[in-house]
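Record type: ASSEMBLY
Status: queued
Input:
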Amino acid sequence: MHVHRFEKLWIGLSLLLIAGFIGIVLFGFTVMDLKVPGIEEGRQVDPTTVLSDEEFSRPGVRKISDDHYEVYMIAQQFIFRPGSTQPLTLPANTRITFHMTAPDVMHGFEVPGSGLNATIIPGQIATFSTRFPEAKSYGIICHQYCGAAHHNMQGKINVVPPSEFDESNLISQ
Amino acid sequence: MSTPESAAPGKASGPEAPSEGSKEISLDEFEPYGTLAVTGSYFVLLLVLYALLYFVEFATHAPHIID
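Status: finished
Output:
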């Protein structure tokens, strides 16, 4: 088959581009060790009883160590608990692990302007870890349509310097 | 396989007949530099925007998923 030299050029460039994209993704997940939000492997919860489960019956911030806190959060129509009625207060420059689930329908968790983004599916626990590099306020929005008041489903994260973090609001283990 | 058209190139009559002043050229003589320029500029635009993604995703001072 005879292929015109211009066509050879742009077919070649396209193939190089595809190879480049695949290479960059492989580089990101191996050398840069990038992570994506996951679900807790092998752990299913019953959405109808999750509100009375061990951790999710008392959603909030728990301390694991001085440099590691975890957040158990319920996303439900149409609030984040904690986050919506009370802002979620977290220390800056500290490892934070989020565990989130939903008792009703699928919700989204997104902190606009950041890389924090997860889908919260009833029956599964969405989880990821992060560090907030600076003390400031971040918003939370639901980015999965979850019902008539979906557009009002929002929350707030107040990140404070670790020295000002008030541990009296933590959920005891 | 020869069709009536390929068997008698240039001898077609009617609306498909080559007009005065036109000539047939081979594929390699056809040089669509305009198409090349448009395709090339889309390619360059794509690379520039893809490079900008680095700054959107990683170079901001915003939290991201580490584990």
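Annotation: The longest strand of chain A covers residues 68-76.
Annotation: The two ends of chain A are 71 Å apart (CA to CA).
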